[in-house]
Specification:
Layout lengths: L16 H6 L12 H4 L14 E9 L5 H19 L1 E2 L6 E9 L11 E8 L2 H9 L10 H11 L9 E8 L10 H10 L3 E7 L2 H6 L2 H7 L4 E4 L13 H12 L8 H21 L1 H11 L11 H7 L3 H4 L7 H4 L3 H40 L8 H15 L3 E2 L8
Parallel strand pairs: 1-3, 1-5, 5-6, 6-7
Antiparallel strand pairs: 2-8, 3-4
Helix pairs in contact: 3-11, 3-16, 4-10, 5-6, 6-8, 9-11, 9-15, 10-11, 11-15, 12-15
């Protein structure tokens, strides 16, 4: 499928106030994430520079029949993120931000279209994981056009001209439900350079009748049909246990900064998301650890090691009481040396994990080929990975191996 993704500034979200005012769609007030997440969000404008950006919004149907879909999303989150971690453009790893919406949940206000922005576009992947694992299902009406419309208009999509912007929407009811015409929503998305990929949970005939393929075609995206109740096959790899042990060492290299409550949150949440991944299986935790050893997992503005790499003045600006306790005890002249030493330790652990991750990927590829029984994507993660690989290539990105992490 040919695709031209326009990034003309005149069509971008921040410059579209006039067209939004003229739109005939109903005004929607979106309920944002819970206070426990919101209080720790760090809002900042998209990165402006030569580094490419990747903005992805995931729209998940959380009605009663979608428990299997949510389970697949939890089990395959880090496999999906790894695709972006391996991508490069002009030698640069893109800055990844992901947003999460749920729709079709009866527990959400009907006046808001049963839609909730769970997480805005964020580079805090632990926060994304936390929110994903907190999702529950409940019956409701599923308005695909409306949730796409809200995602397009409400998110602060990147204005970088050399990036990739995409929506992935998954559900099982007809794409035509609701007051917002899916054709209008998808047209507005691609006019802003946002590709819409549709993942219908059911057979292809139902998907075609429900206009899921049509929605993807309008927005120059890919269309898939999956079985949302299919179990994710967990392949045990010989590298998994070693990677998991190294992940424990990796966690000890993070120097969280900010208010004391924020530092405690970042520390505890990183461990909590390791635990969530581990609860899905050792392979899921190994995939998360491999991601954490790559450029796709960055805690800039939260961790001093990641931040100092891009902001050489950060230690001069942060108040002493907002530094990690071990740095508070040091003289100002000693703090940068400490952070750089910790960066070297992290790089060493990351290098070991990256080597094992490459071996693990080769092992997985061989096993998946041996176990393959059908063509096409079987689960949510399969569909998303297939679309990402194709669309990143068409957008000028190259797929790097896990060992090519620049520090």
């Amino acid at each position: 499928m040919s695709r031209t993704i326009a990034f003309c500034a005149a069509t971008l979200f921040l410059c579209a106030a006039g067209s939004l005012a003229a739109a005939k769609t109903p005004t929607v007030t979106i309920k944002v994430e819970g206070a426990e997440l919101k209080s720790h969000s760090h809002s900042r404008p998209p990165f402006r520079g030569h580094r490419p950006t990747v903005d992805v919004a995931i729209l998940l149907d959380t009605s009663n029949s979608m428990d299997g879909l949510i389970h697949q999303a939890k089990a395959q989150l880090w496999t999906i993120v790894q695709q972006f971690a391996k991508a490069k453009k002009h030698g640069q790893t893109p800055m990844l931000r992901v947003a999460l919406f749920e729709y079709g949940n009866m527990g959400l206000p009907a006046s808001e279209g049963y839609i909730r922005q769970v997480v805005p576009l964020t580079d805090d992947l632990d926060k994304l994981s936390e929110a994903l694992f907190a999702l529950t299902t409940n019956g409701g009406d599923e308005y695909c056009g409306q949730v796409i419309d809200v995602a397009v208009k409400s998110l602060d999509w990147s204005q970088e001209p050399n990036g990739y912007k995409a929506i992935f929407i998954a559900g099982n009811e007809p794409f035509t439900q609701g007051q917002v015409d899916y054709r209008s929503a998808c047209k507005q998305a691609i006019e802003r350079g946002i590709v819409v990929n549709t993942i219908h949970c059911g057979n292809s005939a139902e998907g075609r009748r429900g206009k899921w393929q049509d929605g993807a075609k309008i927005a120059e995206g890919e269309s898939f049909n999956i079985d949302q109740d299919r179990a994710v096959v967990q392949i045990k790899c010989p590298q998994d246990e070693i990677i998991i042990r190294l992940n424990t060492k990796l966690n000890k290299t993070y120097l969280w900064y900010g208010a004391k409550s924020d530092r405690q949150y970042y520390y505890k949440n990183q461990a909590a998301q390791d635990s969530n991944a581990g609860g899905m299986g050792g392979g899921v935790l190994a995939a998360r650890a491999a991601t954490k050893a790559s450029s796709g997992y960055s805690n800039r503005n939260r961790d001093l090691v990641d931040t100092l790499r891009e902001d050489k003045q950060i230690l001069r600006r942060v108040k002493s009481e907002e530094l990690p306790e071990q740095l508070q005890k040091l003289a100002p002249a000693e703090r940068e040396t400490y952070v750089k030493d910790m960066a070297a330790k992290r790089a060493s652990v990351q290098k070991q994990i990256a080597k094992l991750a490459a071996e693990r990927e080769a092992y997985l590829a061989k096993e998946r080929k041996r176990l393959a029984t059908e063509a096409g994507p079987a689960t949510l993660g399969d569909a998303v990975v297939m679309a990402i690989q194709k669309q990143l290539a068409e957008s000028g990105f190259e797929q790097a191996t896990p060992t090519e992490k620049p520090l």
